[in-house]
Design the sequence.
């Protein structure tokens, strides 16, 4: 599981945002149940490169060791809390900033950009 610090008290997640993202190294139309989503666009872009390690510096820059080009998607449907839950590892790492969520059902996706390293 990637580690992300708390950026010295600044949240990674934006609880006010209604836009949810998914990053993947493969082309998709539908996001499978159990997939990760986030409201942080830069984090989703980083995940699109399939890193094994990921972190956020004190200035908020996301660093990772991913080596693949990928794709950034927006969830093309309304996401409600009944259809998602906080990733269990995030509850341990940072319970006050739930920046990664898992889906309880499939979601339609909208491709927004290709992510090139």
Sequence:
């Amino acid at each position: 599981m990637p580690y992300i610090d708390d950026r010295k008290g600044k949240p990674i997640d934006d609880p006010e945002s209604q836009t949810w993202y998914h990053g993947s190294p493969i082309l998709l139309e539908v996001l499978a149940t159990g997939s990760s989503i986030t409201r942080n666009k830069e984090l989703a872009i980083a995940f699109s490169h399939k890193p094994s390690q990921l972190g956020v510096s004190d200035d908020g820059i996301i660093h990772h060791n991913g080596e693949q080009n990928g794709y950034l998607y927006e969830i093309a449907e309304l996401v409600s809390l009944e259809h998602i839950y906080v990733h269990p590892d995030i509850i341990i790492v940072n319970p006050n900033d739930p920046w990664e969520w898992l889906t309880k059902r499939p979601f339609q996706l909208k491709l927004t950009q290709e992510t090139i390293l």
